[in-house]
Fold this protein.
Amino acid sequence: MSDNFSEVISTAIWHEQAEPDNPFAAAVARCHGYDVYGQLIAKAGYIEYLYLLLKGERPDAAATSALNILAVALANPGPRDPSVHAAMAAGATGAPAASALMAAIAAGAGSAGGAREVLLAMQTFSDCGTDLAAWQARIAAPAETRPKYWPQLEHVPGFDPHGVRCATPVLQLLVALQSALPNGSTAWLARNRALLEQAAGIPLAQNGVVAAALTDLGLSGDEAEMLTLLLRLPGAAVHSLEQKQRGYRQFPFLELALENDPGKAQA
């Protein structure tokens, strides 16, 4: 086995200084220049550290407040959400923890209520900014979905295709984020929500609010998509653990509602 430890891992995010007697152990680990164990663990919160990892700088007070609001709002989408439902199904079968979280990520990754929809809604903010006429034109003539392996959207990204009116939690989240981010996309969305909903024909969804806030925080679409996937995992985790204890016999989604049930016709 070679004793040559000169191979260099190239990353702008992380830098390690090895222990003098053990090249496999770090004496100092720096994230974007900050000493993680010497400085950050006693002074930085988890949300601040996530932002530092993503953007390479510390968030200001407004950004920290907005990120904390988003973290609470996204932490548990609830059992009816496909990502949590998938994790619960994994838990009910006694599958390993990793299987439950992978199921949650897979089911919550799409463009119909999932993390991909946040990215797509942010693309609209990037293309149209806070120009109401541009938004109305985009809603009337949606952009083609890219890359091609993603299916073409059947609704406006950031809006609820099944909604009758804007849900109360969505409005509450919008108000809370507007207080932390009084200027920019979030505030514009709050002022123009009714007109945008009229153009879309459906109400604003949580992902639309999340997209506006993450746009204001300077995240790219890819960064926002990844962060959304991450922030939604706690709820999936705890519901999976609960269902693992209860077992499959108490799984709440066993019944299938068939519109044309042949069994009933024969009975």
